[in-house]
From TrEMBL:
The organism's taxonomic lineage, starting at the top: Eukaryota, Fungi, Dikarya, Ascomycota, Pezizomycotina
Alphabetical keyword list: ATP-binding, Kinase, Magnesium, Metal-binding, Nucleotide-binding, Transferase
GO biological process: acetate metabolic process; acetyl-CoA biosynthetic process
Organism: Penicillium brasilianum
Site for Transition state stabilizer, residues: H184, R245
Entry protein name: Probable acetate kinase
Length: 414
């Protein structure tokens, strides 16, 4: 068995891969990301030790599987990364799978578990398909390496029944698995451990409102180390708007959108049966629909380039604020911290400042300089609160889903 762990985070538009040593805690030896799969040209970001490479790729990369194959080939053949030259150097491959249905924890892939996960694809075709394609590819091309899948939904198995139940016919709900699952749980698990450690509290005594704001955005109310509510639902479409997702809308909107909306999407394939409405609300909405860009750094700027950019920003702020109020009450005001994470939460000082100003009545305030500066590269948690107010601390947490999977892989096997 090899000595290294490969952690894979496959999204619809990017694939992030990190190689780790098998030790506690795991150390990253190389990190590669291909993005722009749906908006060519694809770009590669590759980091190995102090070396950082960014380049546009000429290869045809149309799917996350193509991107994964490209990264694997490139890393295995990099003479400067001789530690991992073939499958013989790998002990485990960890895969982030967004929808894990009723799974409470990670599973090792074998014929039976893969079959279970394939059955779930119907519930989340847009989100699980790419990850499972990569799992299948690893089984075929790297058969000696054990694959382990980690689920975004597992962290939220603690949701109280009245939170996870939709008020619809319960027989239909049970038969079809229609309930709130919640996502970004691998990230929330990383955030909980890191913030509890930072605050010097046991996880079971830590309460927070955590925000994972990236291309996909969600929030989570964590009480005594457990998820008690989260903004995504049956699928990652619910809750906050994202780069291409609408977030919450009145479900009736679908029936009024166009007469085509309910039909099978032209983009649906034999494996992926998705309706036009799902495609529109997941892939053609959010700030892309409002502004034309999926890059929030072009939206969250002091002088908004247009009214549409300002509107996209204001909508996100409004929806986040709504959940902060909601979760503050659900946590009975016992909140240790408001935690900003995800690409946008970690990088947009403007979003943090705007939100915290609107939360003054909760006793929160930020230090403008610390907020503008943001965290250093290796600073997992940064406190940007001002003074020792009575309210919750305001923290930035540089979350890392690949690390979280590698960490648990080592913990559960030593
Ligand atoms: N300085 C910044 N200000 C605002 N948004 C930023 C900044 N830097 C990056 N982002 C945004 O972060 C988002 C990506 O976040 P990330 O969590 O990596 O997303 P995902 O994992 O869902 O692909 C992009 O929309 C990107 O534009
Ligand atoms: C669950 C989800 O929305 O994932 P991502 O943010 O990676 O798109
Ligand atoms: Mg993400």
């Amino acid at each position: 068995m090899g000595k290294y762990i490969l952690a894979v985070n496959a999204g619809s538009s990017s694939v992030k891969v990190t190689f780790y040593t098998f030790e506690s805690p795991p150390q990253a030896i190389a990190d590669a990301q291909v993005s722009g799969i749906t908006a060519p040209p694809p770009t590669l970001k590759y980091q190995r030790g102090p070396v950082k490479i960014k380049e546009e790729l000429k290869e045809k990369i149309n799917t996350p599987q193509d991107a994964f194959k490209y990264i694997l080939h490139r890393c295995f053949n990099d003479p400067e990364l001789s530690e991992v030259a073939s499958d013989r150097d790998l002990a485990y491959i960890c895969h982030r799978v967004v929808h894990g249905g009723d799974y409470h924890e990670a599973v090792e892939i074998n014929d039976e578990t893969l079959h279970h996960l394939e059955a779930l694809e119907d519930l989340a075709p847009l989100h699980n398909f790419s990850a499972l394609e990569i799992v299948r590819l690893c089984r075929n091309e790297l058969p000696s390496v054990t694959s382990v899948t980690y689920f975004d939904s597992a962290f939220h198995q603690t949701l109280p029944v009245h939170v996870r139940t939709y008020p619809i016919n319960q027989q239909v709900a049970k038969a079809n698995g229609l309930r709130k699952y919640g996502f970004h749980g691998i990230s929330y698990s990383f955030i909980l451990r890191s913030v509890a450690q930072f605050l010097g509290k046991p996880q079971e005594q830590t309460n927070m409102i955590a925000m994972h704001i990236g291309s996909g955005a969600s929030m989570c109310a964590i009480k005594e180390g457990k998820s008690i509510d989260t903004s995504m639902g049956l699928t990652p479409l619910a809750g906050l708007p994202g780069a291409t997702r609408s977030g919450d809308i009145d479900p009736s909107l679908v029936f009024h959108y166009t007469s085509e909306a309910g039909k099978l999407s032209p983009g649906s394939t034999k494996e992926m049966h998705i309706s036009t409405a799902e495609e529109i609300l997941n892939k053609q909405s959010g700030w892309k629909a409002l502004t034309g860009t999926t890059d929030f750094s072009k939206i969250a700027v002091e002088d908004f380039p247009s009214e549409a950019h300002k509107l996209a920003f204001d909508i996100l702020v409004d929806r986040i604020l709504g959940y902060i109020g909601n979760y503050y009450l659900k946590l009975g005001g016992q909140v240790d911290a408001l935690v900003f994470a995800g690409g946008i939460g970690e990088k947009s000082a403007l979003l943090r400042r705007t939100l915290v100003e609107k939360c003054q009545c909760l006793g929160v305030a930020i230090d403008a300089k610390a907020n503008d500066k943001g965290p250093e590269d290796k600073e997992t948690v940064k406190d940007i609160s001002q003074g020792a107010g009575k309210g919750p601390r305001v923290l930035i947490c540089q979350t890392n889903e690949q690390f979280e999977m590698a960490y648990h892989t080592v913990q559960s096997r030593v």
